[in-house]
């Protein structure tokens, strides 16, 4: 079938290629003039597609996605379907579905996982939307998903796909933090002499084996002491939203919350909070503090 893809970055470009390999006709558009786009505007993309049209939006969440959906609402026709495959917050999906629905345009939200490996391995897809709209675009999902029965779910109505992906990414935060803390403890030990080897040994036969662990092994193969990487870690939104939704639903998610806060700490060269802790220990117990000017521990005179 025909599909237009808006956003040809690392994920969108590879998805377009996987769909082409699967026999679909893809018309790609990206704002970057140096991209491998097929058309130079949204209007041209819509014109190139036969009705009923299917357009997949794969641009950054937030304002870029909102603006794109608004533009498509003016360009598309009744019976067309828009798929948002980015990491939008599920509350945005409700707004988009209402906007497009008023013009008879279907809306499907698709949480997508697979990263740069999805081209060859397939993408895990968590989808929300009306069952008829999902059915219209099912051949697209069937091509993008991994082989086998798993890897695709129609999770529920509009919003369910991105809500599921939000929770997925929150879990990912916690798993990565656990592996990272384990790595640091191994590296700090005087007993363990082959830290990369220990982590690699966990990839077979253990209860903590996973694809994330395989990727950590790959990273350590390339840089055994991770010397070329700084410890600054961004969060792209889903972890925060997961914690917020946990609060809204009165669900305890201490691991996910702690992993999110750990990312905040990673961005501080010299934590103001820990400065306050050092000052307090010095005040009540006379514990030594390290002077910035002298770079050494000082006790009160």
Automatic annotation (TrEMBL):
Organism of derivation: Motilibacter deserti
Name of encoding gene: gnd
Protein name: Decarboxylating 6-phosphogluconate dehydrogenase
Coiled-coil residue spans: none
PROSITE patterns in the cross-refs: 3_HYDROXYISOBUT_DH (PS00895), 6PGD (PS00461)
InterPro entries linked: 3-OH-isobutyrate_DH-rel_CS, 6-PGluconate_DH-like_C_sf, 6DGDH_YqeC, 6PGD_dom2, 6PGDH_C, 6PGDH_NADP-bd, 6PGdom_BS, NAD(P)-bd_dom_sf
Domain annotation 6-phosphogluconate dehydrogenase C-terminal: ranges: 161-295
Membership in a protein family: Belongs to the 6-phosphogluconate dehydrogenase family.
Keywords: Gluconate utilization, Oxidoreductase
KW Oxidoreductase (keyword) present: yes
Pfam family, one: 6PGD
PANTHER family listed in its UniProt record: 6-PHOSPHOGLUCONATE DEHYDROGENASE
């Amino acid at each position: 079938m025909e599909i237009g893809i808006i956003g040809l970055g690392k994920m969108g470009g590879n998805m377009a290629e996987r769909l082409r390999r699967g026999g679909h006709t893809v018309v790609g558009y990206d704002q970057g003039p140096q991209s491998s786009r097929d058309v130079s505007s949204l209007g041209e993309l819509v014109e190139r597609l036969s009705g009923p049209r299917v357009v997949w939006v794969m641009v950054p969440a937030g304002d870029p996605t909102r603006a794109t959906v608004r533009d498509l609402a003016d360009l598309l026709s009744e019976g067309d379907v828009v798929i948002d495959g980015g990491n939008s917050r599920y509350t945005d999906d409700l707004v988009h579905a209402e906007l497009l629905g008023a013009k008879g345009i279907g809306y499907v939200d698709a949480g997508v996982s697979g990263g740069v490996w999805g081209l060859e391995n397939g993408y895990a897809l968590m989808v929300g939307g009306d069952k008829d709209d999902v059915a219209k675009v099912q051949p697209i999902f069937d091509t993008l998903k991994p082989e086998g029965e798993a890897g695709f779910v129609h999770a529920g109505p509009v919003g369910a796909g991105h809500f599921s992906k939000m929770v997925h990414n929150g879990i990912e935060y916690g798993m990565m933090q656990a592996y990272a803390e384990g790595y640091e403890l191994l590296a700090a030990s005087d007993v363990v002499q082959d830290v990369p080897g220990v982590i690699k040994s966990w990839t077979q036969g253990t209860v903590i084996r996973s694809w994330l662990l395989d990727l950590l092994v790959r990273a350590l193969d390339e840089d055994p002491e991770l010397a070329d990487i700084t410890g600054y870690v961004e969060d792209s939104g889903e972890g925060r939203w997961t914690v917020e939704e946990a609060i809204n639903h009165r669900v305890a998610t201490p691991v996910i919350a702690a992993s999110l806060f750990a990312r905040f700490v990673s961005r501080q060269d010299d934590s103001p909070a820990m400065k306050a802790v050092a000052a307090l220990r010095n005040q009540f117990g006379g514990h030594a503090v390290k002077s910035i000017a002298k770079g050494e521990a000082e006790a009160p005179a």
